[in-house]
Write a structure and sequence with these properties.
Blueprint (H helix, E strand, L loop, with lengths): L3 H4 L11 H10 L5 E2 L11 H12 L12 H13 L10 E4 L2 H12 L5 E6 L3 H9 L3 E6 L10 H7 L4 E7 L11 H13 L3 E5 L25 E6 L12 E4 L5 H12 L4 H12 L3 H23 L12 E4 L8 H12 L1 E2 L1 E2 L11 E4 L4 H24 L1
Parallel strand pairs: 1-10, 3-4, 3-5, 5-6, 6-7
Antiparallel strand pairs: 2-8, 7-8, 9-12, 11-12
Helix pairs in contact: 3-10, 4-10, 5-6, 5-9, 7-8, 11-13, 12-13
Bound molecules: pyridoxal-5'-phosphate.
The site of pyridoxal-5'-phosphate has 13 residues, from helix 5.
Length: 395
């Protein structure tokens, strides 16, 4: 038996433990760690949604469902998309998946041949990088920067298009940067997609969570876009339902049979109880979404004020629930900063390198804990920042 390195498929390029796993291991040996790492908020799923899940279980929702998802849930998703200014979809144009996460891989498996190019703003949500890697597609990173609050522009996209370009991924609001593409710029980006016949994967999972004047224009509703757009979303973020594992993708009817079959082969169907809870989320009272949004808005202000006080620049979070902070300003690279912040301050954050950042300057700080815990995290961070600055002053 030879070792894994010689046995793993060539397409698997990352053989080492992921830095997230390493940090989780460090954290498990420490007391009272404040986790501002994973994008999994402390918030409970609203009670009426939990109840719907419990009732569904009691009523026997313990079987596979239709492979594409329960018809009534797909109808509710179609209505929800339309209610928020998106395109009109028929239930047959929607596939319910175990989280939006799986949808990324279904889309990549279904649409990318080896060598096809997938364009993604960089830094960007890392599973898209893995989806390109595992399908042997070429990931084309479009570098965005703090100077422009990490906003993707049509000119940037155009500069990266080649004859092999096939998919343009738009994550709006963006993870890890929290930036939102202004609607007028999004229209220009879509015009580039039409001009170069690109398929757009529009990840709108954070679309309900925007702050200030920012708002998300659903891509598929723009002229000429419905036929070339696959919209990806889910209930995890807007309804505090990360553990229920329900997401979906919606796209033109002619793409769906093939993509649905890939999903069928991977998962058979999404969990029935999760789908019943998602149905309750989308068809029940919607005030909970605004409450969740307001909660993140308040946390975002507290965290940003704390960063200002420490002299750490950051991208203004216009959406999602992350603050992308230029922690290298303290004097050490972000990966070192995050490891020290965890080991010495017992605060977990993730370095931007995880998200394919081309610098080692940034950390993603998730707004996944209460305001008192965020204040406590800021105090601990202050201690670590001061220690780093003292070391640099005396060096
Ligand atoms: C941009 C983005 N898209 C999709 C997902 C997938 O979420 P889920 O699989 O819980 O639907 C996430 C999760 O963090 C995300 O950040």
């Amino acid at each position: 038996m030879t070792n894994a390195r010689t046995r793993l498929a060539r397409r698997v390029q990352h053989h080492d433990r992921h830095i997230i796993t390493r940090m989780m291991d460090i954290a498990s040996g420490l007391p009272d760690v404040i986790s501002l790492g994973r994008g999994d908020p402390d918030l409970d799923t609203p009670a009426h949604i939990v109840r719907a899940g419990q009732e569904a279980l009691a009523a026997g929702a313990t079987h596979y469902t239709h492979p594409m998802g329960m018809p009534e849930l797909r109808q509710a998703i179609a209505d929800d998309i339309a209610r928020h200014g998106g395109a009109r979809y028929a239930p047959g144009e929607i596939v319910v998946t175990p989280g939006g996460q799986q949808a990324m891989f279904i889309i990549a498996l279904g649409l990318l041949d080896p060598g096809d190019e997938m364009l993604l703003a960089c830094p960007g949500y890392n599973p898209y990088l893995q989806a390109a890697e595992l399908t042997e597609a070429k990931l084309v990173e479009i570098r965005t920067s703090l100077d422009t609050n990490f906003t993707l522009t049509a000119d940037m996209v155009r500069a990266h298009v080649t004859p092999r370009s096939k998919i343009l991924v738009l994550i709006n609001p963006a993870n890890p940067t929290g930036s939102v593409i202004p609607p007028a710029e999004l229209e220009r980006i879509c015009a580039v997609a039409v001009e170069h016949d690109l398929i757009v994967v529009s990840d709108e999972i954070y679309a309900r969570l925007t702050y200030g004047d920012a708002r998300v224009q659903p891509v598929a509703a723009l002229p000429g876009m419905r036929e070339r757009t696959i919209t990806l979303s889910g209930v995890s973020k807007a309804y505090a339902m990360t553990g229920w594992r329900v997401g979906y993708f919606a796209g033109p009817a002619d793409f769906m049979p093939a993509l649905a079959e890939i999903h069928h082969a991977l998962a058979i169907s999404t969990s029935a109880v999760g789908q019943h809870a998602a149905l309750a989320a989308l068809t029940g009272p919607q005030e909970c979404v605004e409450e969740i949004r307001r909660t993140f808005d308040e946390r975002r202000r507290v965290l940003c004020d704390g960063l200002v006080a420490m002299g750490i620049p950051y991208a203004e979070p216009e959406g999602a629930f992350y603050v992308y902070a230029k922690v290298a300003e303290t004097g050490v690279p972000a990966t070192e900063f995050c490891e020290r912040l965890l080991a010495e301050g017992r605060v977990m954050t993730f370095p931007g390198t995880i998200y394919g950042d081309y610098t080692d300057d940034f950390a993603r700080i998730s707004l996944t804990q209460s305001v008192p815990r965020i204040r406590e995290a800021l105090e601990r961070m202050q201690g670590v920042v001061e220690a780093i600055r003292r070391e640099h002053a005396s060096a």
